[in-house]
Specification:
With 131 residues, the chain is an alpha/beta fold. The chain is 27% helix and 24% strand. The strands form 2 sheets. It has a 5-stranded mixed sheet. A two-stranded antiparallel ribbon has the order 1-2. This is Alkyl hydroperoxide reductase subunit C/ Thiol specific antioxidant domain-containing protein.
């Protein structure tokens, strides 16, 4: 199950060519997963900015289709169902989910990416350590 402030489950997705993409293999950069074609199109025009923020973005679909971003297929819909319609999932480089919901435009999406990039998980003790 996908939840805020929890690591993404280790789902396996596929490229349209059939290559398996295991989510844990995407660690190391901020991860943006979109299911809205309009938002994917808007973000594709900002790829240079996204790259400068050390983020990677993918469009999710249950079937092969045209996509302005790299396409990942979630044939069973497990991950797509977790993202609200016109929503976005944004995870930190360790795949902890920071945003799971709608964004009004690409500027808000990039603000989330900047926010996630500014977090420092090593700087704060886990909640249980404070007790």
């Amino acid at each position: 199950m996908v939840s805020l402030r929890k690591p993404l489950p280790p789902y396996a997705l596929h490229t349209p060519g059939g290559q398996r993409v295991y989510l844990p293999d995407l660690k190391g950069k901020i991860l943006v997963l979109l299911r809205d074609p309009g938002m994917a199109q808007a973000l594709a025009t900002r790829q240079e900015e996204l790259s400068a923020l050390e983020a990677q973005a993918f469009f999710l679909s249950q079937e092969a289709r045209e996509s302005p971003l790299p396409l990942l297929l979630d044939r069973e819909g497990n991950l797509i169902q977790a993202i609200p319609h016109q929503g976005t999932l944004i995870a930190d480089p360790f795949l902890e989910v920071y945003h799971l919901g709608p964004v009004k435009d690409v500027e808000e999406l990039l603000d989330w990416v900047r926010f996630v990039g500014g977090q420092c998980p090593e700087c704060v003790l886990p909640e249980a350590e404070w007790l």
